[in-house]
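Following the same procedure, sequence and fold were stored together, as reproduced here:

>
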Amino acid sequence: MSKTVSLLSALLCTFIWGTTFIAQDTGMDDIGPFTFNAVRFFVGFLAIIPLAFLFEIKKFKSEFRSDIKTFAILSFLIGISLFLGSALQQVALLYTDVANAAFFTIFYVPMVPIIIFLFGKKTIHWSVWPSVVLCLIGGYLLTNFYDATVRLGDSLVLLGALFWSTHIIFTGMIITKYNLPLTIGAVQTLIVALFSFIVGATYEEFIFENILKEIDSILYAGILSGGLAFVLQIYAQRNITPAPAAIIFSLEGVFATVAAWFLLNQILGVNNLLGCFFILCGVLLSQLLPLIKKTV
């Protein structure tokens, strides 16, 4: 039963992430990307912290009598990874469209096993390499290379995918040691809000009236994506294996593209659709092919 709930949690998390691209895109009409992220993730923190105190305060005290240092280090690592990934993604949306941003974000899926292999010295399944090639071909077809502005945005999203991959890796590490999804979610959103505020205060203007103009997008991205979705991700990674979780998370791009089509009229051309297809094939193959040998 817990595995089924976790799979549903991962699917709901992915749906929220995908549709949040719309809120991220439309929420910067009057404010800058770091202002948006600062307010968004602080709202997410405010949404999670009462639940963390209500449901995990006793467990928190019992689990940190001897190992608070490890928790602090891992919390900072997932927080800074989330800050860098979300910041690059948010800035990129100034230069590229929702569909491109969503599909380049899912490059974190083939990145995860590569990073684990390089730094964790674990064996890597051969299927990763053709999957990476498929993703690169798909990226070429998806991106409008004749448009330098779009190319800049896609490059930022691709760099951000590196930090989304480290976020997944560090989340997997911390949740295996501490069964505190609400507390971890609250800590990481607070870290992102603080760093975003520092950068935003330095390079942007915090105008309260302009923030209120984007309140709908901020609340959706903050409460659902910045709060609920990341807690769902943490819970899902504890109760299901990485392969099906990664497959579900990769559907973020599909949800985002469909949402952009319905709400923003961002239609993909034939080449772009082929690019989407190649990327999805690469992502799915990197997760499904390793399972075949185990079942035979």
Observations:
- Residues 2-295 form one domain.
- Residues 117 and 267 are 38 Å apart (CA to CA).
